[in-house]
User: Which sequence fits this backbone?
């Protein structure tokens, strides 16, 4: 344990989680990115396309490719944003809503399984560490110019 860095543990764990999610998504002819996007779109009102990238932490080009693929599969439609004449709302189709429910079940099952295997105090400590990492990064406490 002492030889592992925090960075290594985070990266290796996230890669394992991503692989697991992609394997599950593959059973539905989908990807983790598609599932994550489905969960990030407001299922009732849709979401402005410009808000999705920042919300998901995705670059515009990656998000554009994902949205194009989702549109081709009939998961989403694009509609003019009534609040912004130049903007576009990304809306889920009925098929998209069905796949969103599946994605939600996959995420909840993962969460429930981990919660069953970890004590409340360990889980609290985990989130405390995650919050500290995010705070150190956002407040530029690690690398300063």
Assistant:
């Amino acid at each position: 344990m002492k030889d592992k860095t925090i960075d290594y543990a985070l990266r290796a764990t996230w890669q394992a989680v991503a692989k697991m999610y992609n394997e599950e998504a593959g059973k539905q002819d989908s990807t983790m990115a598609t599932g994550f996007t489905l969960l990030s779109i407001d299922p009732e009102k849709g979401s402005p396309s410009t808000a999705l990238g920042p919300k998901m932490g995705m670059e515009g080009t990656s998000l554009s490719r994902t949205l194009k693929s989702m549109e081709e599969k009939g998961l989403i439609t694009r509609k003019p944003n009534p609040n912004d004449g130049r903007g576009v709302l990304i809306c889920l189709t009925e098929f998209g809503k069905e796949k969103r429910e599946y994605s939600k079940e996959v995420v909840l099952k993962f969460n429930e399984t981990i919660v069953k295997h970890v004590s409340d105090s360990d889980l609290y400590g985990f989130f405390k560490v995650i919050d500290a990492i995010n705070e150190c990064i956002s407040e530029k406490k690690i690398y300063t110019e």
The mean pLDDT is 93. The beta strands are 47-48, 76-81, 84-92. The CA atoms of residues 53 and 60 lie 6 Å apart.
